[in-house]
Amino acid sequence: MELRVLEYYLMVAREENITKAAQLLHITQPTLSRQLMQLEEELGVNLFKRGKNHISLTDDGLLLKRRAQELVELADKTKREFRREKGELTGEIAIGSGETQSVRFLGKMAAKFHERYPLVTFHLHSSTADDIKDRLEKGLIDIGLLTEPADMGKYGFIRIARKEQWGVMVGKDSPLAGKERVTPAELSGVPLFISRREKVQNELANWFGDFFDRLSVLGTYNLLYNAVMMTEGFGGAVLCFQHGNCYENAVFVPLDPPLQTGSVVVWKKNHVLSPATGRFIEFMKGVDAQEETI
Question: Are residues 146 and 266 in contact, defined by beta-carbon separation less than 8 angstroms?
């Protein structure tokens, strides 16, 4: 299976039309059709549902699309890591992070590092902790920012001094919006969106105590913005970290008693790092995340 053929396949999957994909790839339509047929023969599956004017992907085709995207992304990343100017540190450092204020630590570190090594660039991928760990395993990102609880057995890590503050995001017209803090009893019966991470749900269950069974859980979420927009229609709340005043029609109310979560910068242990990534990690260690103010 050639990388070039996978790139052809992704173009066809995007355009849903072989003729148009061939034009964009600057190859003939018969050549592209032959490459796709050979790919199907090699894998022993049908990748396309062929219609009169367009094609769509089968279930096997969708699986190959995901795998092809990962392989092409990893190949591109590898090429960029080896593009070096003589005597200069270059490369791209891929960072995965959830929606936390602790990302400011990485931002400050990246800015200081870039001043010293201006040919190094950064790519930020925002997602959930589970996706970040998966991408670390596959080599698609170099460094992850995870919130605890997290299994650190596979990773080297730097613990960040800043703690994430838990609370709820509610609409400005909510009865909870005017409160300085909100208790487990006050959240009983309020339609809630909560994190989809099981470990986080266990932490929240401990905080709610006896009130946990009385919660009205509306659903789960992975990233905050859409969850906040969804709750506007329900008059509910989103259990989340404090993110500052980022939402026009919503406010953050801390939990009472307070609930905090730590954050860690992680990378794969016993894994060969690119020169840029290795130097960046040593740079962060030298700053000492425990003393760095954010």
Answer: yes
Q: Does 108 lie in the same domain as 218?
A: no
Residue 28, number of CB atoms within 10 A of its CB: 12
Per-residue model confidence as pLDDT tens digits over 227-262: 888 887 777 899 999 987 677 888 999 999 999 999
- Looking up tokens 């057995």, which residue turns up? 153
What residue numbers bound the domain in which 269 lies?
91-162+263-287
What does the block give as tokens for 68? 């092809």
Please state the rounded mean pLDDT for residues 273-293: 79
3-state secondary structure of 47: coil
Exposed/middle/buried for 251, CB within 10 Å: 0-12, 13-18, 19+? middle
**Distance (Å, whole) CA 213 – CA 257:** 18
**139 and 200 share one domain:** no
Going by their DSSP bridges, the two strands 191-195 and 48-50 should be labelled as unpaired
Please give the pLDDT value at position 84. 58
